[in-house]
C-alpha cells in the first residue's frame, strides 16, 4: 500500500507556512490521536500504488485550477465541469479522511474506484470559511441510516466536514445507493451551496456569509433528517 496525503502536498506551496500546529484524529469512539506537525503532512497507508500514482494523482492535479481561487478567498463562478471535478475530489478526500477514522462502509469506496466520481447517494455542499484559532478543520462522523438492511447501530453512512484555505466542503455518503437521505436545516443551509448531485445552474462562490469554527462544529453534528 502507498502513503496517500489526506490533502494534496501542493497546498504547501499555495498557502503560507504556518509552522507546526495541532493535528487531532477523531474516530467513532472519541479522540484517538493528537500530535504536532505542519499542515498537509497527514497521510494514510490504505491506497494501492496503482491508484495513488494514477487516477488519484491525476485528480489532484486537475482540481488545482478550480480549488486555488477559493484557497485565497477569491470569488468565482463554477459550472458543471468544474463542479464535477470539485465534487469528485471532495468525495475522494472525505473517504481518505474516513479511512483514518475507521468504521466506514465499503460501498462508497468501491463506487469511486469503479466510476471515478461521487455516487448518486452522496450529497456534497460547498461553503466559505472564516478562520479563527484553527486555520484548518477536519471532522469525520459515523452515521447509521435506519431505512436499510443494516443492523441497528451499524455505520452505513458518514458525514465529513473539512476546510482548505477559505473553502468548506461538507460530504455525506451512504451505502444504500438511494439519494435524498440527508438534509441540512437553516440557518446553515443558507450558507452552503449544494454541488452534488449537480445543480441545474452555475454556483457562485463564496455563497454569502462565511462559516466560523463554531458553525463547522454545528454542521458536523447537524445530521438533519437521516431516515
Mean pLDDT over the residues:
76
Let me know the number of strands. Answer: 11
Identify the overall geometry. globular
Which residues form runs of ≥5 with pLDDT under 50?
1-5
> What is the count of DSSP helices, taking H or I runs of 4+ residues?
6
Protein structure class: alpha+beta
Task: Report the major sheet.
Answer: 5 strands, antiparallel
- H/E element sequence: EHEEEHHEHHEEEEEEH
Which sequence of strands runs across the widest sheet?
7-8-9-6-10
Q: Calculate the terminal CA-CA distance, rounded to whole Å.
A: 36 Å
| Helix content range | 25-40%
User: Please, how many domains?
Assistant: 1
* Computed Rg: 16 Å
Strand fraction equals 25-35%
Short descriptors:
227 residues, alpha+beta, five-stranded antiparallel sheet, two-stranded antiparallel ribbon, 11 strands, 28% helix
How would you sum up this structure, described in words?
With 227 residues, this protein is an alpha+beta fold. It has one domain (2-220). It is built from 6 helices and 11 strands. The chain has helices at 11-14, 49-52, 55-71, 80-101, 107-115, 213-220, and strands at 2-5, 21-27, 30-37, 43-47, 76-78, 123-128, 138-143, 157-164, 167-174, 193-196, 203-205. The radius of gyration is 16 Å and the shape is globular. The termini are far apart.
Set down the secondary structure blueprint.
Layout: E1 2-5, H1 11-14, E2 21-27, E3 30-37, E4 43-47, H2 49-52, H3 55-71, E5 76-78, H4 80-101, H5 107-115, E6 123-128, E7 138-143, E8 157-164, E9 167-174, E10 193-196, E11 203-205, H6 213-220
Antiparallel strand pairs: 1-4, 2-3, 5-11, 6-9, 6-10, 7-8, 8-9
Helix pairs in contact: 3-4
